[in-house]
Write a structure and sequence with these properties.
The protein is 30% helix and 17% strand.
């Protein structure tokens, strides 16, 4: 299990370079040639996981459509496993909109596809509807087409599995989705991943999922091909 010093080292990595191109192996839950699942180093709640591409693709809209069967199977498997363990789960992505911004000398835009899974019973679609156009998503595999039609976006999937694409054509605040979810969870202090540090949440995630990693016997072929 992580020590406080190891946690500080991992947290610092998130401030420099692209953590999804060169992920810390201590955070990896499962990996295939094209995708990986890892713990969020600054989790909003225990069990907060991230699905990301191993190649530096900027968002789900840029994932090749020929990869989408695998991506959607892994996405569904991760969500199913978290639901089995925690109950309610929501997911979100910043599709090149208000995405991983940093200030100062280390300023960077980390446009690398990563989809968050947050075990929590909450909904931020009302807040998003107030600010952005709403485009319902019938199936996750529609994302490349929607990205071609609308461009940069925010994506949110509710506890019930209702998916929404919110086109964003103006500059928005960084980590907006994280901010909205933190507020809805009544933990607003966790909104800024750059400033918030809580090793206990990450350690709790690792302990709780240590014996509950993606079960190769119960997940799709795409996940069975992953090294778990």
């Amino acid at each position: 299990m992580l020590t406080q010093d190891e946690y500080a080292e991992i947290a610092e990595q998130f401030r420099n370079g692209c953590v999804f191109c060169n992920p810390d192996q201590r955070l990896i839950v499962a990996r295939s040639e094209r995708f990986a699942v890892c713990f969020d180093a600054a989790p909003l709640v225990p069990g907060h996981l991230i699905l990301h591409s191993t190649e530096h693709l900027s968002c789900a809209g840029e994932v090749p459509e020929t990869w989408y069967e695998e991506l959607d199977e892994i996405r569904t498997a991760v969500r199913t496993e978290l639901e089995r363990h925690y109950g309610a789960v929501v997911s979100y992505e910043h599709g090149r909109a208000g995405h991983c911004l940093s200030d100062g000398p280390e300023h960077r835009l980390c446009h690398h596809f990563h989809l968050h899974f947050v075990p929590a019973d909450l909904d931020v679609t009302v807040d998003l509807h107030r600010r952005f156009k709403h485009v319902p998503v019938a199936t996750y595999r529609e994302i490349p087409r929607l990205y071609e039609d609308f461009g940069d976006y925010l994506f949110f999937e509710t506890v019930s599995g209702e998916m929404s694409y919110f086109p964003v054509d103006t500059e928005i605040e960084r980590h907006l989705m994280r901010t909205l979810i933190s507020r809805a969870a009544k933990t607003p202090e966790r909104a800024d991943w750059r400033a918030y540090r809580n090793a206990d949440l990450l350690i709790a995630s690792m302990r709780q999922l240590a014996v509950h990693k993606l079960d190769a016997r119960q997940t799709p072929e795409a996940v069975r091909r992953m090294s778990i």
